[in-house]
Amino acid sequence: MTKLKRIFMYIFLTAAAFISVFPILWMIISATNQSVDVTKGRLLPGTHFGENLTNLLQTIDLVPALMNSAKISISTTILSLLIASLAGYGFEIYKSKAKDVVFTILLLSMMIPFASLMVPLYRMFGSISQTMPAIGIDTLTSVVLPTVTTAFLIFFFRQSTKMFPKELVEAGRIDGLSEIGVFFRIYVPTMKTTYAAAAIITFMASWNNYLWPLVVLQSPEKMTIPLLISNLGSSYSPDYGVIMMAIVIATLPTAIVFFLMQKHFVAGMMGSVK
Amino acid sequence: MSSKTKTATIGSSSSKKFGMNSKMKSTLIGWSFVMIAVIMICTFYFYPMVQALILSFQSGTGTNLEFVGLDNYKRLLTDSTFLTAVKNTFIYLIVQVPVMIILALFLSVLLNDRTLKWKGLYRTAMFLPAVTSLVAYSVIFKYLFANDGLVNTMLLKFSLVPDAINWLADPFWAKVTIILAITWRWTGYNMIFYLSALQNVDQSIYEAAKMDGASAFQQFFKITIPMLKPIILFTSITSTIGTLQLFDEVMNITKGGPGNATTSISQYIYNLSFKYTPDFGYAATVSYFIVILIVIFSVIQFKVAGDRND
């Protein structure tokens, strides 16, 4: 490659990387600036970090929203992993023609767009509300239930179970473990990386879920982080510094999860191609 | 054939020995592993879809519904908001998906160069947008592209444009903003797929091509593209399906405006059900339109994926 081409390549890559990072950087910088300076286009870190943080905590119910999101995401992740891995294991280890048919039917659910589920689901939880208000409309449970089982995750676990050495199942049985014992004592510890990848995908999707909570949650104290950010974003006289601070804090959990487990995240993405 | 009958006899003799119990028990255990998932998927995916189908033949506000036959489906054809939403969604599809995929391919080829420095840094930087939440990045883009936002400030400062561009309030530029936003969020994500596929391509193919005097341009079109064809198709279909369901960005950047210039189909369904006087029946009809589009694209994907395995 000629020298000129190489220079062009570096310029292009640097520009692409800069554009990718810039909005995120701008968000962090703006969280340390006054609202007026943000509007003026100030691009240097300011000294209003503490002030923005105090204002945020005083004027906006960020902490309750964080708690709601945490409750929803953590319970969704735990239940999702349990349900999907049991199913993925069941479909692969106890393989049968009938189960393969059922598996194919389950996969069809991946084609259903959420937009077409939201109306019937809303009506479903509406009627549940009349008899069991604890899991009906406007409860955290109603956010979790419809999103907790995805055919994608079952598929993901089944694909990974194909790599799982079947002799271990036999060995476990010989050692006198029950069938469910084999699953919890042998399968789960062996498949740690698969669980890690699945946990990241599920946690991030749940933490960032917007449409279903928007439909099903109504009272302000039930609000999740994406709903809160969306509300802040559409306010008429926004305090940019404070809003940026809120977005930074809201993004932190997923950013931390991502950077700690980057390899598993990419592994999870690739799992969808198999 | 003979081996089949043999196993069958062994099977029946062992079941005689232990009674039918052990075999039945094993089948039962197998089903109990998958049972929760099956029940959940049926309750929260298939049952609602049946409900939506029934709803699509009904009309009325809120819970006062009555059967109207195919009226809702007829209404689709003359509903100008619906047609605008479909048009908008297809504009996003036709412009955004190809631009993003070509850009992602180009970047992945550059990053796959073995002599490249700071490779990890570039890769992480470009993947970073894929970690942000849809709502959060949408709000940031809304501020960046506001009339007095940073993008306009910069464009004016460097005299790239004579007047501030009305990014969010002009029907054309509002669409451009949405497309720019989605491209920013997903290019790096798709690039990672291509990059890992490229790493599996045997480098000696390129060496051989170079010896035969193939230019970088020829190598890209004659080797890279054909080799990555399956993954390019996979990402095109997933991006297409994602765009058909576009909601968060439109809702948070432009709210569908100005007028209905940026409304997506998903957002129209939301508006019909929860913003205007609720018309669940008609909303369900519109939603079946997306279902049909997605089924078509998924069938294409399954067919092509099937061909790949042959």
Automatic annotation (TrEMBL), chain A:
Pfam family, one: BPD_transp_1
Compartment(s) of residence: Cell membrane
GO BP annotation list: transmembrane transport
Keyword tags: Cell membrane, Membrane, Transmembrane, Transmembrane helix, Transport
Membrane topology category: Multi-pass membrane protein
Keyword Translocase: no
InterPro entries: MetI-like (IPR000515), MetI-like_sf (IPR035906)
Domain ABC transmembrane type-1 stretches: 66-261
GO CC entries: plasma membrane
Major location (coarse): membrane
Keyword Transmembrane helix included in the entry's annotation: yes
Sequence intervals crossing the membrane: 7-29, 72-89, 101-122, 134-157, 194-212, 240-261
Family: Belongs to the binding-protein-dependent transport system permease family.
PANTHER family associated with the record: ABC TRANSPORTER PERMEASE PROTEIN MG189-RELATED-RELATED, ARABINOOLIGOSACCHARIDES TRANSPORT SYSTEM PERMEASE PROTEIN ARAQ
Protein name, entry field: Lactose ABC transporter permease
From TrEMBL, chain B:
Cell compartments where the protein resides: Cell membrane
CDD domains in the cross-refs: TM_PBP2
GO annotations of cellular component type: plasma membrane
Residue span, ABC transmembrane type-1 domain: 86-301
TM stretches of this protein: 28-47, 90-112, 124-145, 227-247, 280-300
Keyword terms: Cell membrane, Membrane, Transmembrane, Transmembrane helix, Transport
Domain of life of the source: Bacteria
Pfam families noted in UniProt: BPD_transp_1
Key word Transport present: yes
Record-level GO BP terms: transmembrane transport
InterPro entries: ABC_transporter_permease (IPR051393), MetI-like (IPR000515), MetI-like_sf (IPR035906)
Membrane topology summary: Multi-pass membrane protein
PANTHER family: ABC TRANSPORTER PERMEASE PROTEIN, INNER MEMBRANE ABC TRANSPORTER PERMEASE PROTEIN YCJO
The family this protein is said to belong to: Belongs to the binding-protein-dependent transport system permease family.
Name recorded for this polypeptide: Lactose ABC transporter membrane protein
Species of origin: Domibacillus enclensis
